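Go through this:
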Amino acid sequence: MLNQKNYDSMVESKLPKIKTILLATDGTKYAEPAFDNALHIAKQNEGRLVITFCTEPNYHHPPLATTAQWHDYGQKVLKRLSDEAQAQGVKVETVLANCQSESGMSELIDQVQPDLVMLGSELFHSN
């Protein structure tokens, strides 16, 4: 009979370790599950979590009218998430980069070389 311990052991032995996770987040409450999952995976794999603030200023609530507002808010989001990850023993890095377009995100992926990319955003939530 396959119990949870046997299942976990089987999965761990067959799957490669996820050493680097890239989490793109807009910092909203809708992004929290992605952050929680990224933390869990990083802890399980003794991996590194790279977090980037990624949102379109005009779609943010309230809208971030200037680049300076976007930058300041992004820094606050990254600090809050980084502090929480470090408190849970996860190796974490933050990147405040323009990843609002496909090419921007592709460049960040090329730079970070993650094993897993996760996205947490208000734009992709469901009720």
Summary: The two ends are 37 Å apart (CA to CA).
